[in-house]
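We close this part of the discussion by returning to an individual protein. The sequence in question and its structure tokens are set out directly beneath this paragraph:
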Amino acid sequence: MSVRFAGYAAIFDVPDRGGDVVRAGAFAGSGPVPLLWQHRGAPVGRIEQLAEDSRGLRVIGRVELPELAQLVRDGALGGLSFGYRVQAARHGRWRELERLDLIEVSLVAVPMQPLAWVHAVAPG
């Protein structure tokens, strides 16, 4: 069993739990990345579409690991996050992430960005 999902791995201009703020354009030029579980291990599916829009980094993916697919389908798991290297940032009240090297997108139990969640699920 697999499921497809859509959601946001990053929300622009909203501080996360660690004090970072991602700015629009930070992901410009990002290429394909793997879909991981909790930022580690082997891929658990694949990212089918990845693009910035006016809200943040929108992701459409497919979870192929049956146990995780079931949790996502049932709404028991839906946090999204991303792994990155900072290419450019400004420091002030928050660390403003202006340009990032995107490494991966992960399904997570508790996202660093409280608004980064799966918002739609469909059979795979």
